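Hi everyone,

Forwarding the result from last night's run.
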Amino acid sequence: MLLQLKNIFKWVNSGGQRIFLLKDINLTVEEGEFISVMGPSGSGKSTLLNVIGMLDNFDEGEYHFLDESVHTLKEKHRANLYKEYIGFVFQSYHLLDDLTVYENLEMPLLYKKYRSSERKAMVADMLDRFNMVGKKDLFPAQLSGGQQQLVGVARALIAGPKLILADEPTGNLNSQQSEEIMQLFKTLNQEDGVTIIQVTHSEMNAAYGSRIINLLDGRKIGD
């Protein structure tokens, strides 16, 4: 088992009332799964992803990741955990504009105490794998949306995460670029054994997953 959420609640207080963002979520994810999370806007999809990615706290419940009880961990320990095991891919790429493709890819490795020679080799490997050797010195603004998202995926992968969390990863891409990214996820899942959880509005993208979870108003209504 990779992770388990037990009776997770998350709320905000507004005008003396609790507004629930997540209500009593129970979810178990095995290593090697490819899960699509669907639901209308405001249903809690991104909140769920952020909770799984340890970017958001929750108010009640338990979260177990590998052998750690996330809900009992201090902030710093949690941050180490997600840097070690989780890669994020966002809709809006989240690349650093003033860094080259090479530097964007190297960034996650700087947190991890790799030696300079190891970093060079790992970045070279990713550039090669994503056919981007010729673009390594370009800045994000000089790339198409599809290329920026490829860099985003490569950056999420570079440190060898167990889990990739993707929030509308093709939201800003045309259909050909979308398909390329989804095929890439499929390969990563099937050949590299990376567990993937993606939030998507697209039935077509969701179909790449082996399991679909539906949310409505912060509740899980189907799995």
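The chain is about 35% helix and 30% strand.

Cheers,
N.
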